[in-house]
Amino acid sequence: MNKIFSFLTGAIVGALVGATIAILMAPSSGVELRGQIQDRSIQLRDEIKQVADERRAELERELENLRAPYRKE
Predict the structure, then answer these.
(1) Which domain range does residue 22 map to?
(2) C-alpha angle 55/58/64, rounded to 5°?
(3) Cβ atoms of 37 and 23 closer than 8 Å
(4) Are the C-beta atoms of 51 and 61 separated by less than 8 Å?
(5) pLDDT, tens digit, for every residue of 14-63?
(6) What is the distance between the terminal CA atoms of the chain, rounded to a whole angstrom?
(7) Whole-prediction pTM value?
(8) Which candidate, 44, 55, 53, 52, places its Cα nearest to that of 18?
(9) Do 28 and 36 form a contact (C-beta atoms < 8 A)?
(10) 73 pLDDT exceeds 60?
(11) What span, in angstroms and rounded, lies between the C-alpha atoms of 13 and 7?
(12) How many structural domains comprise the chain?
């Protein structure tokens, strides 16, 4: 679990550094750049929410399977 967390932390930091460099080197105007940043942040937020929802559903299924043998019917 610690290796996964370390990997994800590194990936996020790398993405932020890459995005910062891309923004600083971008040949766009300020208005265009802000619009692109806003669009990308909305897209990223939606992707993260989708992945989190999928993972939550997976964990809920696993929890249900673990609880099933202990239920008295």
Answers:
(1) 2-70
(2) 140
(3) yes
(4) no
(5) 888 988 888 777 776 778 878 888 999 999 999 999 999 999 999 999 99
(6) 35
(7) 0.52
(8) 44
(9) yes
(10) no
(11) 10
(12) 1
